[in-house]
Amino acid sequence: MSPALFAPQAKRDLIEAASWIAKDNPAAARALRDSLADAARRLGRYPDLGAPRPDLAGPDIRFLVLSGFPYVVVYDAMRRPPMILRVLHGGRDIPSLMGNG
C-alpha cells in the first residue's frame, strides 16, 4: 500500500511545528518528521487506524494521535491513499481549527 499523502496545509503544519521545535531541539524536530512519516506509512496500510470524531468532522475524516508527540493527524480515510489534511498540536483549539468552534 502507498503511504498517506500530505495536503498542502498539512505540509505547512509540519514545517511550522518542526521549525518551532528545532529552535530548541533539532533532534526532536527530526524525530517529529520521522514519526509523521511512519504514521503516513501506517495510514496507507490501515486507513481506519484513527478515530472518527463526529463532533469535529464528517464520517470520512479520522484523527490519529502521533506517537511520542502531542500532535493529532487529521486525515481523510476514504481516499486511496489516505490524505493527511492537518497536523495539529493537541493543545490548540482543534474545534476552531476544524471550523466547528
Q: Would you kindly provide a brief summary of this structure?
A:
This protein has helices at residues 8-22, 26-45, 94-97, and strands at 5-6, 51-52, 61-65, 71-76, 83-89. With 101 residues, it is α+β, with helices and mostly antiparallel strands. The chain has one domain (5-98): RelE-like (YaeB-like fold, 2-Layer Sandwich), CATH 3.30.2310.
Description:
This protein has a 5-stranded mixed β-sheet with strand order 1-5-4-3-2. It contains 3 helices and 5 strands, in the order βααββββα. Helix content is 39%, strand content 22%. It has one domain (5-98): RelE-like (YaeB-like fold), CATH 3.30.2310.20. 28% of the residues are buried. The protein is globular. The N and C termini lie far apart (35 Å).
